[in-house]
TrEMBL record:
Similarity annotation: Belongs to the EXORDIUM family.
PANTHER family: PROTEIN EXORDIUM-LIKE 2, PROTEIN EXORDIUM-LIKE 5
Signal peptide span: 1-21
UniProt-annotated location(s): Secreted, Extracellular space, Apoplast
Protein name: Protein EXORDIUM-like 2
Organism name: Rubroshorea leprosula
Keywords: Apoplast, Secreted, Signal
Keyword Iron-sulfur: no
GO cellular component terms attached to this protein's record: apoplast
């Protein structure tokens, strides 16, 4: 299991040690490879929607995932962002959205415990799948807001990757300052004006940041013995090691310079299929030993 303590932790560290973010960028950041299997090759991403999402919201997520391994959009693109995962031992990971199920009537209630997540993920079985659980804004999940999502596996350590799952919640009404930052004012630390969400939906655009984070963390550390820094029970992984960084020149509370769409004022850094745009977090690059931003 892996936890993202995104903005809150970063800001807290910056209060304790004001130059924390400068240190992160100046010293080489090393995520050690622990010799375990990574997810390389072709993977099907199944989506488990828990609670109510509109068709428009679902298509923002589907287009994002299908853009990871598609080279149709102009750079900087979602696929150029995903390409950094190829530099982690063993080649590329091609992801395609597979099956989807809608649990619109909250069959397990609106308060989920951690064991509910692998239980929901077991809806879809099969090799080379990643099951993604997405919870609606009115669903409380154990640990939500301490973390914005999590990933794990249920069936042991295998390159055929059974039982790999991740969860991300819609934080629109629960903790947008933590999990939908920088589209929402942060709760802690220095305040910069929120950015305009590229798909006009603070909750879903925030989920995209966390889905991107967890997909990259999952393929590079699926069984807790891949790439990470720190203790295995609270690892810093491919993207969680770069928390709070979206563009060049970022510092605590400032996401960095990103692109702005003139007509809407929306901030983004990645083009995608169907003319969509997304704002994606920096990812650790094993070649340069630094957090890589798209712009
Ligand atoms: C992945 O799928 C593509 C297209 O179907 C195929 O050409 C390729 O050989 C597959 N790769 C692996 C590693 O199975």
């Amino acid at each position: 299991m892996e936890f993202i303590y995104r903005v809150a932790t970063l800001f807290l560290l910056c209060f304790i040690h004001p130059c924390f973010s400068a240190l992160v960028q100046e010293q080489p950041l090393v995520l050690k490879y622990h010799n375990g299997a990574l997810l390389k090759g072709n993977f099907t991403v199944n989506l488990i929607w828990y609670g109510k999402f509109t068709p428009a919201q679902r298509s923002i997520v589907v287009d994002f995932i299908n853009s990871l391994s598609s080279t149709r959009a102009a750079v900087p693109s979602v696929s150029s962002w995903w390409k950094t995962t190829e530099k982690y031992k063993g080649g590329s990971s091609t992801l395609t959205v597979g099956k989807q199920v809608l649990f619109e009537n909250y069959p397990l209630g609106k308060i989920l415990k951690s064991p509910h997540l692998p239980a929901l993920a077991s809806k879809f079985n099969g090799v080379n799948t990643i099951n993604v659980i997405l919870t609606a804004k009115d669903v409380a999940v154990e640990g939500f807001c301490m973390r914005c999502g999590t990933h794990g596996s249920t069936k042991g350590v295998s390159a055929s990757a059974r039982g790999v799952f991740l969860w991300v919640g819609n934080s629109e009404t629960q903790c947008p300052g933590q999990c939908a930052w920088p589209f929402h004012q942060p709760i802690y630390g220095p305040q910069t004006p929120p950015l305009v969400a590229p798909n006009g939906d603070v909750g879903i655009d925030g989920m995209i940041i966390n889905i991107a984070t967890l997909l990259a963390n999952t393929v590079t550390n699926p069984f807790n013995n891949g790439y990470f820094q720190g203790p295995a029970n609270a690892p810093l992984e491919a993207v969680s090691a770069c928390t709070g960084i979206f563009g060049s020149g970022s510092y605590s509370g400032y996401p960095g310079r990103v692109l702005v769409e003139k007509s809407t004022g929306a901030s983004y850094n990645a083009n995608a299929n169907n003319g969509r745009k997304y704002l994606l977090p920096a990812m650790w690059d094993p070649q340069t030993l630094a957090c890589k931003t798209l712009v």
